[in-house]
Write a structure and sequence with these properties.
The chain is built from 16 helices and 13 strands. By secondary structure, it is α/β, with parallel strands linked by helices. The protein folds into two domains: 204 residues, Glycogen Phosphorylase B (Rossmann fold), CATH 3.40.50.2000; 157 residues, 3-Layer(aba) Sandwich (Rossmann fold), CATH 3.40.50.2000. Strands 3-2-1-4-5-6-7 form a seven-stranded parallel sheet, sandwiched between helices. The protein has a six-stranded parallel sheet with strand order 10-9-8-11-12-13, sandwiched between helices. Helix 4 packs across helix 5, helix 9 runs parallel beside helix 14 and helix 14 crosses helix 15. The longest helix is centred in the N-terminal third of the chain and has 29 residues. The termini are close together. The structure holds uridine-5'-diphosphate-xylopyranose. The site of uridine-5'-diphosphate-xylopyranose (UDX) has 24 residues, from helix 1, helix 11, helix 12 and helix 13. The site of uridine-5'-diphosphate-xylopyranose has 24 residues, from helix 1, helix 11, helix 12 and helix 13.
């Protein structure tokens, strides 16, 4: 009989959109009887006192001059690929030390059980470290199967001569990956070709991994999940969306401004557009101005989240254009950070203007809210295509931040028949999500299988 693994070590990456689902997973597994240790990056501002049920072990940055976060507030641009590669390099030694200590402590305990390591798929170095210590490891992909497939096919697209992609091909379908076009994928450019190919290889390497968890829902990505299951000879558990399964936990980076809920309480049902572009976005002055006037000109009520970090070099909310405040009067409300899930569940909210990060996408689907999609990088591009062309609950902007297009999209979503139909489809999806996480639903069943799997190594 194998050793019992009742202790799980979680290895997140330090980014809001990734830390939330992994802490949700930790909380779910804790309720199933597992003891959980989170190896978190020392400078990342998660408050362990908010999670008394989890143990925290800080990882130290092996280099000298970085704050360790994937989204450094002080920069006005962001290089995801280099950031992830360097994160894995910088924290490898500290992760080895931490896991060695955890193993030693486990051995001294009476049941002599060893931990199973569940790591964010982007923190792939954890699989190597776990393997060196003879620990089983499971990759947790906090985004969806489509995003995983994007990186899986990148080397093939390179070999077939599609990469670096030429502008003339951007609107063409990706061979073997319908309905996505080249422009919907996160692909290397000439400048980051080697780094991106290297990252894709590490991200999709499952040689020492026992299983994969994906924070998706079977009905959303059925055929892709089947393809992945055929391709990899390891179990794949789709258990999402974790925020629907986990008891409410607060993993917010920034303090939530709850005054916006009192403001929403005074608005009519489905009348407010919620506007937020997640935790990793940098708006320049022109984009901010176009967005602001697009919102004003639409004459629609809106709640707009502008985190200070999204303004890059700009000085906070004072950077909003002159006349904006007078023009919106009672119709607009701006906060630095909102309790997003509560906002999306509020009756007054009828649409979400989003960057289409995966958490925002599943939170919107889970509350039956249709979207305006303005993707920026990574999986957001693919999510926007899913929303607009597969699930048909989103309108994708094609011109970046352009006030006329924004105004027009807001009208279509919030007042036209087109928007009403999208809302109806979004409500249908919401019901399907609820059924998936209920007892007997696909995510619920997959979660039970995952629990059995990691209990039986
Ligand atoms: C990043 C990437 O950008 C995204 O593409 C990837 O899928 C996950 O990692 P992020 O940009 O932060 O994520 O976006 P998203 O995935 O949408 O996560 C943002 C989280 O912050 C959501 O859970 C949302 O509820 C929360 N949030 C956002 C708040 O709680 N309040 C806010 O005001 C804004």
């Amino acid at each position: 009989m194998g050793t019992q693994f009742l202790h799980v070590v979680l290895v997140p990456i330090p980014s809001q959109g990734h830390i939330s689902p992994i802490l949700q997973l930790g909380t779910i597994l804790h309720t199933r009887g597992f003891s959980i240790t989170v190896c978190h990056h020392e400078f990342y501002p998660v408050d362990p006192s908010c999670f008394p049920h989890l143990n925290f072990q800080p990882l130290k940055d092996g280099s000298s001059n970085n704050n360790g976060s994937c989204n450094d507030d002080s920069s006005s641009s962001f290089n995801w690929v280099d950031s992830i590669l360097s994160l894995n390099d910088k924290y490898k030694v500290s992760l080895e030390d931490s896991l060695t200590q955890i193993v030693r402590a486990s051995r001294q305990q009476i049941n002599n059980s060893l931990p199973c390591v569940i790591y964010d798929g982007w923190m792939y170095v954890a699989a190597q470290v776990a393997n060196d210590l003879n620990l089983p490891s499971v990759a947790f992909h906090t985004s969806n199967a489509g995003n995983f497939m994007n990186y899986l096919i990148t080397p093939r697209l390179f070999e077939e001569g599609h990469i670096p992609i030429q502008d003339s091909k951007l609107l063409q379908q990706v061979p073997g990956f319908s309905p996505f076009r080249f422009k919907d994928l996160s692909l290397p450019s000439m400048e980051n070709l080697d780094a991106m190919l290297k990252l894709s290889t590490f991200f999709c390497d499952t040689r020492t991994t026992s299983a994969m968890i994906i924070n998706t829902i079977e009905f959303l990505e059925q055929s892709l999940l089947e393809m992945l299951k055929k391709h990899f000879q390891i179990p794949i558990f789709s258990i999402g969306p974790t925020h629907k399964v986990s008891p409410t936990i607060c993993s917010s980076l920034l303090e939530e401004d709850t005054s916006c809920i009192s403001w929403l309480d005074k608005q009519a049902p489905n009348s407010v557009l919620y506007v937020s572009f997640g935790s990793i976005i940098f708006l320049n002055k022109e984009e901010l101005t176009e967005l602001a006037w697009g919102l004003v000109n639409s004459k629609q009520s809106f709640l707009w989240v502008i985190p200070p970090s999204s303004l890059g070099g700009l000085r906070s909310l004072e950077s909003l254009p002159d006349g904006f405040e007078d023009a919106i009067k009672e119709r607009g409300y701006v906060v630095k950070w909102a309790p997003q899930k509560e906002v999306l569940a509020h009756d007054a909210v009828g649409g979400f203007f989003s960057h289409c990060g995966w958490n925002s996408t599943v939170e919107s689907i889970s509350t039956g809210i249709p979207m305006i999609c303005s993707p920026n990088f990574g999986d957001q591009l693919l999510n926007a295509r899913y929303l607009s062309h597969v699930w048909s609950i989103g309108i994708e902007l094609e011109k970046g931040f352009c006030r006329e297009e924004i105004e027009n999209a807001i009208r279509r979503l919030m007042s036209d028949v087109e928007g009403k139909e999208m809302r109806k489809r979004a409500m249908d999806l919401m019901k399907m999500v609820e059924a998936s996480v209920r007892r007997g639903g696909s995510s619920s069943n997959n979660l039970n299988e995952l629990v059995d799997f990691i209990s039986s190594f």
